[in-house]
Amino acid sequence: MSGFATLSGSCHCKNIVFSLQWPTAAHEIVTRTCGCTFCRKHGGIWTSHRDARLAVQANQAALISKYRFGSETADFYICKRCGVVPVVVSKIENSLFAVVNINTFDDLDTFTLSDTPTDFDGEGTAVRLNRRKQNWIQHVDISI
């Protein structure tokens, strides 16, 4: 795909795999280290770009669990076999938006990472969903 670099990733056992088409004009991948206890305990460092394209597949869908907590506005896709969380998806107004965990990427050599610690505690649901619509990956295909 012209104008895009392909990044691939997966959970540890490769049950959940993804392909991320990242805009090549964005040489820097901005990451967000979430301060919530779930993300800290699962090593979640998230990234997204509104123009990126994400395709997620599962080798064994029965080995995937979706976890939803707090505001119940996002599904964390967890591999039941290895426990890794590579992708989070939020359905907003019948469209899927997503972020990916950079710790699950296979190769990041051509990009510079820039981390921003984040804390979304106290963020209202409307503000949260609007932020996701503006910043999360807007082209999401999940085959699970």
Could you give a quick summary of the protein structure above?
With 144 residues, the chain is mainly β. It has helices at residues 37-42, 125-135; strands spanning 4-10, 16-23, 28-34, 45-47, 53-58, 64-67, 75-79, 87-92, 95-101, 112-118, 139-143. 12% of the residues lie in helices and 45% in strands.
Tally of alpha and pi helices? 2
Strand content: over 45%
Which term fits the overall shape? Answer: globular
How many beta-strand segments?
A: 11
Q: What's the Cα radius of gyration?
A: 14 Å
Give the overall pLDDT as a whole number: 89
**Spatial strand sequence of the major β-sheet:** 6-7-8-9-4-3-10
Proportion of helical residues: 10-25%
End-to-end gap: 24 Å
At the first level of CATH, the class is Mainly Beta
Structural class by SSE content: mainly beta
Note the run of SSEs as H and E.
EEEHEEEEEEEHE
Biggest sheet layout = 7 strands, mixed
Number of domains: 1
Query: Uncertain runs with pLDDT below 50, 5 residues or more?
Result: none
What fold name goes in the CATH topology slot? Metal Binding Protein, Guanine Nucleotide Exchange Factor, Chain A
CATH architecture: Beta Complex
List the helices and strands and how they pair.
Elements: E1 4-10, E2 16-23, E3 28-34, H1 37-42, E4 45-47, E5 53-58, E6 64-67, E7 75-79, E8 87-92, E9 95-101, E10 112-118, H2 125-135, E11 139-143
Parallel strand pairs: 3-10, 5-11
Antiparallel strand pairs: 1-2, 2-5, 3-4, 4-9, 6-7, 7-8, 8-9
